[in-house]
Amino acid sequence: MTPALHQSAPAAPGPDTPSSASRPGVDLEGHRLAVAREFTRMVDAGELDLPLPGSGDTRGRWHALTAIAERDLALARLAEGHTDALAILAELESLGVHPVPVPQPGSCWGVWAAEPPGTTLKAVREAEGSWLLSGTKAYCSGARVCTDALVTVREGDRRLLFAVAVGPGVVPVPDSWPAAGMNASDTLDLDFHEVRAVLVGDSGAYLNRPGFQHGGIGVAACWYGGAKAIASTLLAAASAHGPEPHTLAHLGAVDARLQTVSALLDRAARELDADPADRQGGAALRSMRVRAATEDAATAVLHHVGRALGAGPLGHDRDHARNVTDLTVYLRQHHAERDLAGLGAALIAASSR
Questions:
Q1: What pLDDT sits at residue 16?
Q2: Do the beta carbons of residue 196 and residue 132 sit within 8 Å?
Q3: In this structure, what are the phi and psi dihedrals at residue 189, rounded to the nearest 5 degrees?
Q4: Tell me, what's the pLDDT at 180?
Q5: What is the spatial distance between Cα 218 and Cα 82, in angstroms, rounded to a whole number?
Q6: Residue 203 vs residue 264, higher pLDDT
Q7: 26-203 belongs to which CATH class?
Q8: Domain 210-351 is of which CATH architecture?
Q9: 26-203 and 210-351, same CATH topology
Q10: How far is the C-alpha of 137 from the C-alpha of 143, rounded, in Å?
């Protein structure tokens, strides 16, 4: 078993991965384009054709997402969305409620399901099996690189799921992600102008599938990879500078947290593969536990590495500084105390059964 925190050979080159010492300055747009190129290359090469959740190699799926996140968190965000979309389509096809599109070779998929206040996307039925989408969809990762997407739309109390081809009528909203954190994930708001869509899931099809919970752990696997990348900076510094006790204490704390997450992912994968359809009803509780523990561990890694190393790598190591900024943003897909309260409520419900 590979340790959660170890020294290893350098990762295979990814987007914008030469030594930071040879790359002065910060080029956010150049990095975004490099991530987009690498994402499309990985799709074309079949490198994102991962085992489906519950297929017997769920841990291999999460290992792959973690490894991508260790290279680049923005790239992992795109890879996770693409692989999640393929898993959703496969799950919906198995249910047989609606015909679902077959992903074409080279197509890059996203899952655009955020519904913050202030943005509204509406669906109007055009004909049997055909709908038109109009309005604004927020937080669309891969907005300018995805060729297709699964999109949620509210219709009264219903939450429908559509498949759309990203083309004419789908317009990025300028400056809708002005921040540096996760900038290269190209997470923009999109304006839809009567865009033809295919209904693939009725009300509840997106949130109530077992796969929704399985996919949530895939996101945590990406957080774990980002935390490992940040921790590797501390390991390298501790190895180079000798046995300074405070640095070693932070290193030990980081390693203990990461080992815990690795063990949780191992256990979650075994449980998921044993019950992919969630007949025992444990998927939601499992997902909330893994996500909460991973967010807590990743937050602790940010804390310990920052205290151990100070401002040096944040000011002089571009890759480390980017990882810290990106992970800080990415972790907010966990909704902090709101999600912890949900975990507590799930525990009470489970104990009363």
A1: 52
A2: yes
A3: -75, 145
A4: 93
A5: 12
A6: 264
A7: mainly beta
A8: Up-down Bundle (1.20)
A9: no
A10: 10
Give the whole-angstrom CA distance, residue 90 versus residue 100: 9
Question: Interhelix angle for 210-241 vs 73-95, to 10°?
Answer: 160
User: How many Å apart are CA 82 and CA 107, to the nearest integer?
Assistant: 9
Torsion sign across C-alpha atoms 229, 58, 294, 336: positive
Tens of pLDDT, residue by residue over 232-284, are: 999 999 999 888 999 999 999 999 999 999 999 999 999 999 999 999 999 99
Any idea where the domains of the chain sit in the sequence?
26-203, 210-351
Q: Are 286 and 35 in contact (CB under 8 A)?
A: no
Q: Which long-range contacts (CB under 8 A, 24 or more apart) does 201-206 make?
A: 201/92, 201/97, 201/98, 201/160, 201/161, 202/97, 202/98, 202/158, 202/160, 203/157, 203/158, 203/159, 203/160, 204/159, 205/92, 205/97, 205/160, 205/161, 206/88, 206/113, 206/150, 206/152, 206/159, 206/161
Q: Please say whether the beta carbons of 198 and 126 come within 8 A.
A: no
Cβ pair 103, 43 in contact under 8 A? no
**What confidence tens digit (pLDDT) does each residue in 297-347 have?**
999 999 999 999 999 999 999 999 999 999 999 999 999 999 999 999 999
Query: Whole-prediction pTM value?
Result: 0.92
Which DSSP letter does residue 127 get? E
Tokens of 314: 């944040």
Task: Report the mean per-residue pLDDT for the chain.
Answer: 92
pLDDT in tens, 42-67: 999 999 999 999 999 999 999 999 99
Is 112:166 a contact under the CB 8 Å cutoff?
Answer: no
Instruction: List the structure tokens of 22.
Output: 């040879």
Number of residues that make up the chain: 353
